[in-house]
Amino acid sequence: MREKFFEEIATQRISASLGAAVASLVLAAVPALAATTAADRAVPHYDHIIVIVEENKGYATVLDRGYAPHIADLAKRYGTATQMYAEVHPSEANYVAILGGDTFGIHDDDAWYCKPQTIDPFCKGSTGPGYVAHLIDAPNLAAQLRARGLAWRAYLEDIPGPGSLAIVSPETATAPAALYAAKHTGFTNFASVHADPDLARELVGFDAWRADVAGNALPAFALVVPNQCNEMHGVDSPKSPAGCAKGDEDLVRRGDVVVGDLIGAIQSSAAWTTPGVNTAIVITWDEDGKADRVPEAAQACCVVDGHNPGGGHIPTIVITNHGPDGFADPTPYDHYSLLRTIEDALGLDGHVGHADDPAIVPMAPLFGPVK
Fold first, then answer.
1. What's 40's domain CATH number?
2. Which tens digits make up the pLDDT trace of 63-100?
3. Is residue 226 reached through a cis peptide bond, with omega within 30 degrees of 0 on the bond before it?
4. How many Cα atoms sit within 13 Å of 279 on the Cβ side?
5. Cβ–Cβ contacts within 10 Å for residue 368, how many?
6. How many CB atoms lie within 10 A of CB 39?
7. In terms of pTM, does the model score above 0.70?
8. CA distance linking residue 176 with residue 179, whole number of Å
9. How many domains would you assign to the chain?
10. Contacts of 229 (CB under 8 A, 6+ apart)
11. Which of 28, 95, 148, 268 has the highest Cβ tally under 10 A?
12. Among 259, 345, 340, which Cα is nearest to 34's?
């Protein structure tokens, strides 16, 4: 009866705003309700969860080598997951995993429209064995949020325009190509997102980010991805600004400053300072970098299979406006743990994909209040 009730409520909400055809697609992407555990119930309710994703740097590079003093200070002052792991190499499938609870067999950075045998510059691996379609019709966080009547936005620096499905941003007179890259978006890999009539309000640039932070208009869930010069990925081009070269420690320092600015803006906003409003910021990475891969060291935890062989040991910092201070959590976590925590904290129905796996536990110690 409880499942039937929520299904009827979700149908009413979705049909009113999208029409029956799109409602059917979204409902198909919402998981069945599952029993919650004591660990799930230990995650308090949050009004806003903001996830900032950085690129291609492991735990030691960010937190142990002195290249990222702002982030290292945040880790010491707030909370850090000391045994957090990515799912796979390279980048794209990890963003998909955070939002959909699976890598869906993706093992490359090809475009969302790629299918087996797609001959296209952005589908480089499509003729290889085991290649899968990159547009996924499966449960995902965006569909869960919509079914619950909650808003989400992806704030993507240098996206070509609101709602853009472009694979990369173009070169301009003053900037290199691919400052924005869809492989670092995640949402564009899901069919239900493509069908969303609000897409132009959900895939937006940093102008919208600044306006929403200043105007107390942040959604329930926000994904924040700086451009490839500012997220520690790097762009090798004559037009790249200083500190953007791949593999350079200056790239980490540049990203560290950008993260510090993003955090400072949030912590000065009403979403952070208003009594009774719970807000959490997560800084995480898609995968580690080659400099951090130690032979024989663990590359994964929690859920490991042929699709998810591991993406390395990554830093993850959790900053809440009411939670633990200076807490280092040694529990093994991965991207699916983060997804499960988001679902719990926002009161969503069920857990998608591997986020519902018995091996996955929510990051309750990092999100909970000080006892």
1. 3.40.720.10
2. 999 999 999 999 999 999 999 999 999 999 999 999 99
3. no
4. 21
5. 18
6. 17
7. yes
8. 7
9. 1
10. 179, 235, 240, 241, 243, 244, 251, 254
11. 95
12. 340
